[in-house]
Specification:
Number of strands: 21
Distance between the termini: 45 Å
Radius of gyration: 22 Å
Strand content: 25-35%
Structural class: alpha/beta
Helix content: 25-40%
Shape: globular
Number of helices: 11
Length: about 450
């Protein structure tokens, strides 16, 4: 009888690949609080003139280590922070590889881009209206953060357990295009209800062997800027609130937020902690709705394949020194700041760059899900551009990963003008050419093919 039961089970598994592969993943999870405990300056708004005053809600970094049946591993780290630049992120990924064996090229470091978190920098020189002590505290915080991010992945890597993955997509309505056409004033940072915006909410549910959820990874594509420059309280904004509300509804579950192509989108409305909490509630409610309709989620099975690469993006030829000096003397907008940065480099005898290289990653989870992780503040146009290039089906497009170097506008946005055309603000200075659009799409397409995304996947 025992032999017959074993034979029957084997036949059932052979006849049902889906059943046989339900437990072909292993997942490890960990988290660490990254709320600053010293009075550091906040990130996101240049007009702030003093360190943060209090903490409204804590900030976290969370790690997920994923392994397939063959033992191929990758790590995703989400953070309630403004964004990691390459000089901060690259050493973290190398150290994680040294400590865990997970390849640095299979590690995604993602940030929510909250504007009510700490400034990040390894530069000890005082910046603008800040003292040497301010800069030293920021550097100390950033170095401690690097240590925490390495350790949280190491902790997750030690806790791999069998898991089942499934995913779906929802929608939220507070995501608003912010490129307002204001007549003679040009394109301002405002509210454009008719503008393009990505209101999708990708949701990845991760269950344990018992079928109960262990983690929920989800996304949205709006700046975390519900709170403004007059706010001096640390907060994860709507993304932080959403994570907490999901975890309160599903005790023991780790909720992780990934920001999408939010370069030209803000929450609507904006302005208070109450509104930030409401946006978080809307997002959490939709994530929970999608995640709880388990029978409607698509299973994610198969082999994990990751691809890492770079896109070389051309920069516009800078103006002459005379023109730069005129621009630097102007008031308002980003033009004067860009001109000042260019003049400073010329005064140091440096050449202005003609191109910028940005990192990219694509994760392919079997034939069921592709995660394209872009760097920089990417505008919404790239969602359609990449869907056209890769196919719309089972595609998750994220930004603000690896290196938050500045804004990556599309050719359309560059032609129209506005704040999002400012280009680089970290790791160099320069404004992108329209040809940067095709260079980025081509590089992602090549990586997707390398990772094995099925062509024309729908």
């Amino acid at each position: 009888m025992l032999r017959r039961l074993s034979l029957l089970l084997a036949l059932l598994l052979l006849a049902s690949p889906a059943l046989a592969q339900e437990n072909d993943w292993k997942v490890g999870l960990a988290r660490v609080k990254v709320t600053p405990d010293q009075p550091v300056f906040m990130a996101g708004y240049a007009s702030r003139d003093r360190p943060f005053a209090s903490v409204n809600d804590d900030l976290y970094a969370k790690a997920l280590v994923l392994a397939d049946e063959q033992g191929t591993r990758a790590a995703l780290v989400t953070t309630d922070l403004i964004g990691l630049t390459a000089d901060i992120a690259d050493p973290i990924r190398r150290r994680i590889e040294e400590q865990t064996g997970i390849p640095a090229t299979s590690i995604i470091l993602s940030s929510s881009h909250t504007h009510t978190g700490p400034t990040l920098s390894l530069d000890p020189k005082p910046q603008e209206n800040r003292t040497l002590a301010d800069s030293e505290r920021t550097v100390a915080y950033t170095k401690a953060l690097q240590d925490k991010l390495v350790q949280v992945v190491a902790d997750a890597a030690k806790q791999l357990q069998p898991a089942r993955l499934s995913w779906g997509v929802g929608v939220v309505h507070f995501v608003m295009n912010r490129r307002e056409f204001a007549g003679e004033r040009g394109i301002i940072l405002g509210v454009n209800p008719r503008g393009q915006a990505d209101r999708s909410v990708p949701v990845l549910r991760i269950d344990g062997e018992d079928g109960n959820p262990r983690a929920v990874v989800f996304g949205a594509a709006s700046h975390n800027t519900t709170l403004g420059p007059r706010d001096y309280e640390i907060s994860g904004d709507y993304a932080g609130h959403a994570q907490r509300q999901i975890e309160a509804e599903l005790p023991g579950v780790q909720a992780m937020f990934i920001l999408g192509c939010a370069g030209d989108a803000n929450p609507y409305p904006r302005g208070t902690h109450e509104i930030a909490t409401q946006h978080g509630k809307e997002l959490a409610t939709e994530v929970l709705r999608v995640a709880k309709e388990k029978e409607k989620l698509a299973p994610v099975r198969g082999q994990l394949r990751t691809a890492w690469g770079q896109a070389t993006l051309p920069l516009a030829t800078p103006p002459s020194r005379d023109e730069l000096e005129k621009q630097a003397a102007d008031r308002g907008g980003t033009g004067p700041w860009i001109a000042q940065q260019m003049l400073a480099r010329l005064d140091r005898g440096e050449k202005l760059p003609t191109e910028f290289t940005c990192p990219l990653a694509v994760w392919q989870l079997g034939d069921d899900l592709t995660l394209a992780a872009l760097s920089g503040e990417v505008v919404v146009d790239y969602v359609r551009l990449l869907e056209d290039a890769l196919g719309q089906g089972r595609l998750w497009i994220a930004a603000y990963c690896h290196d938050v170097y500045g804004y990556l506008p599309s050719a359309r946005v560059l032609e129209q003008g506005g704040y999002e055309t400012r280009g680089l603000y970290a790791g160099g200075i320069g404004v992108f050419k329209p040809e940067a659009e095709s260079a980025l799409v081509r590089a992602v397409t090549d990586l997707a093919a390398k990772a094995g995304r099925p062509r024309g996947k729908e």
